[in-house]
Amino acid sequence: QVQLVESGGGLAQPGGSLRLSCAATGTIFSINFMGWYRQAPGKVRELVARVTGGGSTTYADTVKGRFTISLDNVEKTVYLQMNSLRPEAPAVYYCNAGIKLSPKKGTGRNYWGSGSKVTASS
To answer: How many other CB atoms sit within 10 Å of the CB of residue 22?
Structure first.
């Protein structure tokens, strides 16, 4: 059974940095993509950044130039380096992964982590 184990997050000063990690555990054939979404109270969950197994990245416009996503395919771990954090409302960051469970067709599955709270406040 595949699980996404998140770490990092917490409280940082505005302008500061935090790093999130998310490790995919279990029986995994390959990673199609891994990424991060965030959800602030009363708002919809939105994509922050995503990286494919081949290394292509996508960022929300609001984080371009400040956040960097990277994927370690061997460790099956995705990292989100967040710099120049802005004083926004606290949000929960969710790890998301598209994982292929075997070489057979139709074995791709989508998984979510349990969420990590990130707050940038003085």
So the answer is: 26
